[in-house]
Protein backbone atom coordinates (compact mmCIF):
# COMPACT_ATOMS: atom_id res chain seq x y z
CA UNK A 1 0.00 0.00 0.00
CA UNK A 2 1.23 3.53 -0.73
CA UNK A 3 1.34 6.23 1.94
CA UNK A 4 -1.94 7.81 0.77
CA UNK A 5 -3.78 4.56 1.39
CA UNK A 6 -2.50 4.52 4.98
CA UNK A 7 -3.64 8.12 5.47
CA UNK A 8 -7.06 7.22 4.06
CA UNK A 9 -7.25 4.23 6.41
CA UNK A 10 -6.35 6.41 9.39
CA UNK A 11 -9.03 9.00 8.63
CA UNK A 12 -11.87 6.98 7.09
CA UNK A 13 -11.58 3.55 8.72
CA UNK A 14 -9.92 4.08 12.11
CA UNK A 15 -10.78 7.79 12.54
CA UNK A 16 -9.95 8.23 16.25
CA UNK A 17 -6.32 8.40 17.33
CA UNK A 18 -4.45 8.83 20.58
CA UNK A 19 -2.42 12.02 20.22
CA UNK A 20 0.50 12.90 22.48
CA UNK A 21 2.04 16.24 23.37
CA UNK A 22 4.09 17.39 26.38
CA UNK A 23 2.12 18.77 29.34
CA UNK A 24 3.07 21.74 31.49
CA UNK A 25 4.63 19.31 33.98
CA UNK A 26 7.11 18.15 31.33
CA UNK A 27 5.54 14.72 30.95
CA UNK A 28 3.73 13.20 27.95
CA UNK A 29 0.01 13.90 27.81
CA UNK A 30 -2.44 12.01 25.59
CA UNK A 31 -6.00 12.46 24.43
CA UNK A 32 -8.23 10.90 21.77
CA UNK A 33 -8.66 13.10 18.71
CA UNK A 34 -10.63 12.40 15.54
CA UNK A 35 -8.66 12.60 12.31
CA UNK A 36 -11.02 14.58 10.09
CA UNK A 37 -9.52 14.82 6.60
CA UNK A 38 -6.56 13.64 4.55
CA UNK A 39 -4.99 14.56 1.24
CA UNK A 40 -1.59 14.29 -0.41
CA UNK A 41 -0.36 17.09 1.89
CA UNK A 42 -1.17 15.39 5.18
CA UNK A 43 -3.75 14.76 7.88
CA UNK A 44 -6.14 17.34 9.34
CA UNK A 45 -7.70 17.56 12.80
CA UNK A 46 -9.12 20.35 14.94
CA UNK A 47 -9.53 21.53 18.49
CA UNK A 48 -11.04 24.46 20.38
CA UNK A 49 -8.88 27.50 21.02
CA UNK A 50 -9.70 27.43 24.74
CA UNK A 51 -8.19 23.99 25.37
CA UNK A 52 -4.79 23.20 26.87
CA UNK A 53 -4.28 20.91 23.86
CA UNK A 54 -4.54 23.94 21.57
CA UNK A 55 -1.91 25.81 23.58
CA UNK A 56 0.44 22.82 23.47
CA UNK A 57 0.00 22.46 19.70
CA UNK A 58 0.75 26.13 19.15
CA UNK A 59 3.85 26.03 21.35
CA UNK A 60 5.30 22.65 20.43
CA UNK A 61 4.26 22.33 16.78
CA UNK A 62 4.87 18.57 17.03
CA UNK A 63 2.77 15.51 17.89
CA UNK A 64 2.92 11.75 18.06
CA UNK A 65 -0.20 9.71 17.33
CA UNK A 66 -1.26 6.07 17.34
CA UNK A 67 -4.51 4.57 16.12
CA UNK A 68 -5.65 0.97 15.91
CA UNK A 69 -8.63 -1.05 14.71
CA UNK A 70 -9.08 -4.74 13.89
CA UNK A 71 -5.44 -5.50 14.77
CA UNK A 72 -4.16 -2.94 12.25
CA UNK A 73 -2.40 0.18 13.49
CA UNK A 74 -0.98 3.44 12.19
CA UNK A 75 1.60 5.40 14.18
CA UNK A 76 3.03 8.79 13.17
CA UNK A 77 5.20 11.49 14.70
CA UNK A 78 5.96 14.81 13.13
CA UNK A 79 5.40 18.49 12.57
CA UNK A 80 2.02 20.22 12.67
CA UNK A 81 0.85 23.70 11.74
CA UNK A 82 -2.23 25.76 12.45
CA UNK A 83 -4.19 26.56 9.28
CA UNK A 84 -6.97 28.46 11.07
CA UNK A 85 -10.43 28.03 9.58
CA UNK A 86 -9.11 26.63 6.30
CA UNK A 87 -10.87 23.32 5.57
CA UNK A 88 -13.21 23.85 8.55
CA UNK A 89 -16.36 23.81 6.39
CA UNK A 90 -15.13 20.74 4.52
CA UNK A 91 -14.50 18.98 7.83
CA UNK A 92 -18.06 19.70 9.00
CA UNK A 93 -19.46 18.48 5.68
CA UNK A 94 -17.60 15.18 5.83
CA UNK A 95 -17.97 14.67 9.59
CA UNK A 96 -21.61 15.58 10.11
CA UNK A 97 -21.62 14.66 13.82
CA UNK A 98 -19.54 17.80 14.39
CA UNK A 99 -22.57 19.92 13.46
CA UNK A 100 -24.37 18.74 16.59
CA UNK A 101 -21.34 19.31 18.82
CA UNK A 102 -20.69 22.83 17.49
CA UNK A 103 -24.00 24.06 15.97
CA UNK A 104 -24.34 27.20 13.87
CA UNK A 105 -21.60 29.79 14.34
CA UNK A 106 -20.15 28.15 17.47
CA UNK A 107 -17.66 26.38 15.18
CA UNK A 108 -15.71 29.65 15.25
CA UNK A 109 -14.23 28.33 18.53
CA UNK A 110 -12.31 25.75 16.48
CA UNK A 111 -9.13 25.88 14.46
CA UNK A 112 -7.68 23.28 12.11
CA UNK A 113 -4.22 21.75 12.37
CA UNK A 114 -2.34 19.93 9.62
CA UNK A 115 0.17 17.13 10.21
CA UNK A 116 2.33 18.01 7.22
CA UNK A 117 5.71 16.38 7.81
CA UNK A 118 5.84 13.05 9.61
CA UNK A 119 7.18 9.53 9.60
CA UNK A 120 5.86 6.37 11.16
CA UNK A 121 4.62 2.90 10.40
CA UNK A 122 1.72 0.69 9.54
CA UNK A 123 1.58 -2.57 11.50
CA UNK A 124 -0.85 -5.41 10.80
CA UNK A 125 -1.16 -8.48 13.04
CA UNK A 126 -4.57 -9.60 11.76
CA UNK A 127 -2.79 -12.74 10.47
CA UNK A 128 -0.59 -13.51 13.51
CA UNK A 129 1.66 -15.96 11.70
CA UNK A 130 2.41 -13.47 8.94
CA UNK A 131 2.61 -9.91 10.31
CA UNK A 132 3.04 -6.93 8.01
CA UNK A 133 5.04 -3.77 8.75
CA UNK A 134 5.52 -0.80 6.44
CA UNK A 135 6.93 2.72 6.68
CA UNK A 136 4.77 5.81 6.26
CA UNK A 137 6.09 9.23 5.25
CA UNK A 138 4.27 12.55 4.96
CA UNK A 139 6.20 15.40 3.35
CA UNK A 140 9.97 15.14 3.50
CA UNK A 141 11.08 14.28 7.04
CA UNK A 142 14.63 13.11 7.60
CA UNK A 143 14.70 9.39 6.84
CA UNK A 144 15.32 7.14 9.83
CA UNK A 145 16.28 3.54 9.18
CA UNK A 146 14.93 1.30 11.92
CA UNK A 147 14.95 -2.41 12.63
CA UNK A 148 17.53 -5.19 12.91
CA UNK A 149 20.19 -5.51 10.20
CA UNK A 150 22.80 -8.23 9.60
CA UNK A 151 26.42 -7.21 9.15
CA UNK A 152 29.18 -8.60 6.96
CA UNK A 153 30.62 -10.80 9.74
CA UNK A 154 27.64 -13.17 9.38
CA UNK A 155 28.86 -16.79 9.15
CA UNK A 156 25.54 -18.20 7.94
CA UNK A 157 24.99 -20.36 11.03
CA UNK A 158 21.18 -19.88 10.81
CA UNK A 159 20.78 -19.60 14.58
CA UNK A 160 18.92 -16.31 14.07
CA UNK A 161 16.37 -18.05 11.87
CA UNK A 162 15.83 -20.78 14.44
CA UNK A 163 14.73 -18.26 17.10
CA UNK A 164 12.79 -15.85 14.83
CA UNK A 165 9.04 -15.99 15.67
CA UNK A 166 8.03 -14.99 12.13
CA UNK A 167 10.78 -16.92 10.27
CA UNK A 168 11.33 -13.75 8.28
CA UNK A 169 15.08 -14.20 7.74
CA UNK A 170 16.34 -15.26 4.32
CA UNK A 171 19.07 -17.81 5.07
CA UNK A 172 19.79 -18.61 1.42
CA UNK A 173 22.37 -15.82 1.28
CA UNK A 174 25.35 -14.81 3.41
CA UNK A 175 25.04 -12.50 5.15
CA UNK A 176 21.46 -13.53 5.83
CA UNK A 177 18.78 -10.87 5.24
CA UNK A 178 15.95 -9.89 7.57
CA UNK A 179 12.64 -9.05 5.86
CA UNK A 180 11.90 -5.68 7.46
CA UNK A 181 8.25 -5.80 6.38
CA UNK A 182 7.62 -8.82 8.62
CA UNK A 183 10.10 -8.29 11.48
CA UNK A 184 8.59 -7.94 14.98
CA UNK A 185 11.68 -6.08 16.30
CA UNK A 186 11.81 -8.58 19.18
CA UNK A 187 15.62 -8.73 19.13
CA UNK A 188 15.95 -12.51 19.54
CA UNK A 189 18.17 -12.75 16.46
CA UNK A 190 20.65 -10.21 17.85
CA UNK A 191 20.74 -11.95 21.23
CA UNK A 192 21.46 -15.31 19.59
CA UNK A 193 24.03 -14.26 16.98
CA UNK A 194 27.43 -15.80 17.96
CA UNK A 195 29.30 -13.07 16.04
CA UNK A 196 27.21 -10.20 17.44
CA UNK A 197 26.82 -8.94 13.89
CA UNK A 198 23.09 -8.14 14.00
CA UNK A 199 22.63 -4.46 14.79
CA UNK A 200 19.54 -2.57 15.91
CA UNK A 201 19.08 0.75 14.12
CA UNK A 202 16.67 3.62 14.70
In short:
The protein has 202 residues and is α+β, with helices and mostly antiparallel strands.
Structure description:
- The protein has 202 residues and is an alpha+beta fold.
- Helix content is 21%, strand content 39%.
- The strands form three sheets. Strands 1, 2, 3, 4, 5, 6, 7 and 8 form an eight-stranded antiparallel β-sheet that branches. The protein has a two-stranded antiparallel ribbon with strand order 9-12. Strands 10-11 form a two-stranded antiparallel ribbon.
- The mean pLDDT is 95.
Q: How much β-strand is present in the residues?
A: 35-45%
Number of helices: 6
Question: Could you tell me how far the N terminus lies from the C terminus, measured between alpha carbons in angstroms?
Answer: 23 Å
H/E series: HEEEEHEEHHEEEHEEHE
> How is the main sheet built?
8 strands, antiparallel
Helix content: 10-25%
Structural class: alpha+beta
Number of strands: 12
Give the overall pLDDT as a whole number: 95
Name the overall outline. elongated
Estimated radius of gyration: 21 Å
Amino acid sequence: MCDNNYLKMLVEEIHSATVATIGTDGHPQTRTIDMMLWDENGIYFLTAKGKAFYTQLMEQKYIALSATKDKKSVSLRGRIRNIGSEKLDEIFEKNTYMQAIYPSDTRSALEVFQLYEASGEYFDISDPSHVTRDSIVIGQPQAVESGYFVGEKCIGCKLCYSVCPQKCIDISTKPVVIDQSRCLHCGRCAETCPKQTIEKKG
